[in-house]
Amino acid sequence: MRNSTGILITVFTVLLSFLGIFTLIAAQDGKKTEATEKNSFIHTGDESGNTAVSGNNARKTPLSFRITKIFPLRNGIEYAVSEQKGFLISFDRGATWEARNNGLPTRETYPYGNLPVRHLTSIGIDPIDQKRAAVTTRKGIYLTENYGISWKRILLGKPLRKSSYLTSIALSPDNRDTILIGTSFNGFFETDNRGRTWTDISVNLRFLYKGSGFYEEISAVTYIPGNADKIYFACRFTGILYSFNKKTGEISGIALPKNKILTGMEIIKGESDRGKDNDEQ
């Protein structure tokens, strides 16, 4: 745990110097956690990775699961992704977790029927309205606007390829209908009408092309609040974080720490610029 914490601090230091007045929230490696009630979970992992279950409602034989990504938000709220439990939300800084997967696709495994939600490859959160989040599976996009109580599918279409594997996603804080997705080997794409049409905004970034029809994997994407033309995207293989102006084509990049991969990021304005969210669900 100390090693992973050091990695996060290093990445935060580099990114914050790059992003100036904005605060960046990056996905954290999750700890093993344990189920206690139907949809609530107590998470008490220590630095060694050991876990324990506490509370009056804890089962005698808890069901173990692992959180793979955590996104801390405001007012003690955290979003997380679990391979076994799907999308999770906590309203008490991770002390307890609730699974919210209504509308997300389930795994179909014969002869066992539908199993838990399919593997979620990424999560993106509206930097201004944290009730709004989107997740991707390898081939699908799902949007919630009520803290995960319900999810709606966002359609995909050309110029995305059928072979496109979705690796990252971001919600625009300036247009509720605009979504940005990154892929493995096919660049990144944007819709401004919730999936009715898509645009390949990486088509002219030839340095992403690796040959044989394949592109650099886009491991993370995000928008800048108040600047609809500017995005950030991270490349898995070269380890570079880029700032890209969609309107002018201006681009610049910095190298991430060696052998470090950025798999999720959100940029929000500082405390003095934030509104307060008092409508927790």
Oligomer: single chain
Head-to-tail CA distance between termini: 31 Å
* Share in helix: under 10%
Mean pLDDT: 75
Give the overall shape: globular
Sheet with the most strands, sense and barrel status: 6 strands, antiparallel, barrel
The poorly predicted ranges are 1-23, 28-63, 272-278
How many helical elements?
Answer: 1
Structural class: mainly beta
Describe the structure.
- By secondary structure, this protein is mostly beta strands.
- It contains one helix and 24 strands.
- It has one helix at 2-19, and strands at 23-26, 32-35, 40-42, 64-72, 78-82, 86-90, 96-99, 106-109, 113-117, 122-125, 133-136, 141-144, 152-154, 165-171, 179-184, 188-191, 199-200, 209-211, 214-215, 218-224, 227-235, 240-245, 251-255, 265-268.
- The strands form seven sheets. It has a six-stranded antiparallel barrel.
- The radius of gyration is 19 Å and the shape is globular.
- The two termini are 31 Å apart.
Task: Produce the secondary structure layout.
Blueprint (H helix, E strand, L loop, with lengths): L1 H18 L3 E4 L5 E4 L4 E3 L21 E9 L5 E5 L3 E5 L5 E4 L6 E4 L3 E5 L4 E4 L7 E4 L4 E4 L7 E3 L10 E7 L7 E6 L3 E4 L7 E2 L8 E3 L2 E2 L2 E7 L2 E9 L4 E6 L5 E5 L9 E4 L13
Antiparallel strand pairs: 1-24, 2-3, 2-4, 3-7, 4-5, 5-6, 6-7, 8-9, 10-11, 11-12, 12-13, 14-15, 15-16, 16-17, 18-19, 20-21, 21-22, 22-23
